[in-house]
Amino acid sequence: MRYGSVAIMAAVAVLVLGAVSAEAHSTSIPTTVNIIAIQGSPPDQLVTGTVDSRRERCESRRRVRFYIRRGSGPRELLDVSRTSRNGAFASRGNTAGADKLIVAVRKNVVGRGNHRHLCEPAKASRQL
């Protein structure tokens, strides 16, 4: 009987130690924004590009914000869009008088509970 109790206690210890090694973690995943093309001429221009990451979930359905900057003034929100399943995006907007276009994605948390991954924020800019 004594050996049975020792065996049960050893099994419980193995389970507890195994549970500790499977504890929660957070992983940060790098993301990049690429502006592929700006087509047309002001005031109506089409911007296309991609959001790239090593994790597909960090590319698909990301909210993309398009800003313009006139001179040294503050940036102005031009449009908000979402990426496709493969990370592609496009937007059309009035860029009249703008010197710079900025495309940005904010951080995005994917996963559930204690097993989450952070898709890092990213931005790209181009002179108009």
Task: Outline the structure in words.
The protein is α+β, with helices and mostly antiparallel strands and 128 residues long. It has one domain: Immunoglobulin-like, CATH 2.60.40.10. Helices cover 16% and strands 55% of the residues. It is built from one helix and ten strands. The strands form three sheets. The chain has a four-stranded antiparallel beta sheet, with no helix packed on it. A three-stranded mixed beta sheet has the order 1-9-8, with no helix packed on it. β4 (63-69) and β5 form a beta hairpin. It is elongated. The mean pLDDT is 86.
Largest sheet geometry: 4 strands, antiparallel
- Rg, please? 24 Å
Strand/helix succession: HEEEEEEEEEE
CATH homologous superfamily? Immunoglobulins
CATH topology: Immunoglobulin-like
Q: Any low-confidence stretches, pLDDT <50, length ≥5?
A: none
Q: By helix and strand content, what is the structural category?
A: alpha+beta
Shape: elongated
Strand percentage, roughly?
over 45%
The figure for the number of domains is 1
Query: Regarding CATH, which class?
Result: Mainly Beta
Second CATH tier, the architecture: Sandwich
Number of strands: 10
The whole-number mean of residue pLDDT values reads 86
How many helices does DSSP assign? Answer: 1
| CA distance, first residue to last residue | 82 Å
Strand arrangement within the widest β-sheet reads 5-4-7-10
Q: Estimate the helix proportion, in percent.
A: 10-25%
